[in-house]
Amino acid sequence: MLIKGMTAVLTGAAAPDGIGFATARRFVEEGARVAILDLRQEDCARAAESLRAIGGPNAAIGAAVDVRDRQGLAQVAQHLQTTFGKLDILVNNAGIAQKRRLEEVSAEDWHATLDVNLMGMFNATQAMLPLMTDGGAIVSVASIAAQRGGGLLGGPHYAASKGGVLALTKSLARELGPRRIRANAVNPGVIITSMNRTAFDAATQAGMVASIPLGRFGSPEDVARVCLFLASDLSAYVTGTAVDINGGMHMH
Ligand code: NAD
Prior knowledge:
Elements: E1 7-11, H1 19-29, E2 33-38, H2 41-55, E3 60-64, H3 70-83, E4 87-92, H4 107-128, E5 132-141, H5 145-148, H6 156-176, E6 182-188, H7 202-210, H8 220-231, E7 242-245
Parallel strand pairs: 1-2, 1-4, 2-3, 4-5, 5-6, 6-7
Bound molecules: nicotinamide-adenine-dinucleotide.
Nicotinamide-adenine-dinucleotide (NAD) binds at residues 11-12, 14-15, 18-20, 38-39, 66-68, 93-97, 116, 120, 141, 143, 188, 190-191, 193-196.
InterPro entries: NAD(P)-bd_dom_sf (IPR036291), Sc_DH/Rdtase_CS (IPR020904), SDR_fam (IPR002347)
EC number: 1.1.1.100
Family: Belongs to the short-chain dehydrogenases/reductases (SDR) family.
């Protein structure tokens, strides 16, 4: 077990077919206790319950909080202080995407997307940092859109928010290095979740798959495995970087 006895917080992790939940499940399978943060209490409770069925009665808790809500996050951190005592891993995963062209993006769209995807990461990191043990790990979910621009993969505001996630990750790595806290990101390509399951018609899908050397879209588990690597000591000397998980769809 790679992270046995560790504690982890994952934002946006209640959707049963999402990247956050798949990562939380992988963490529990590897011996961690997890806190599932997401918007709705009933979703968090359901997700935590299904993880307790895998990892035992202490394996998971759920807490409803919006990553835009700094006060709510502070309350969750206080709750975690009493239940977990310390925090080893933070996964900043909560995100929203709008597939829009530049001329269609309103100021409200821009702010809504940046508030969740980028400021949400900042808020959650600031709230959880006081709980984090020296030697802990932060993993943030960016996107291939940060590397290639939006288009089919999300609008320009989505791409900009994820570019911000990559820049903030580097700042965290620099500032937190002296505490041996590592900060890394992942750049998923097209991962089939509720975010995009119905986003592409059959012809578009076929064209996209044809452009992926591994010949398929990704699964949430593909991302979860890399998050596990970045959260565990397997990546003890890796910080300030991002791992692409895209089947070869984009290469540097
Ligand atoms: P998803 O929609 O299944 O999961 C997103 C989760 O975030 C949901 O559970 C949602 O309730 C939660 N969330 C949204 N706004 C929130 C807020 N304000 N506060 C707290 N929680 C909030 O989608 P997913 O595909 O699993 O996405 C997870 C992450 O992966 C996102 O950051 C997304 O941008 C990123 N990503 C996804 C893909 C893909 O192809 N699916 C590709 C690249 C990056």
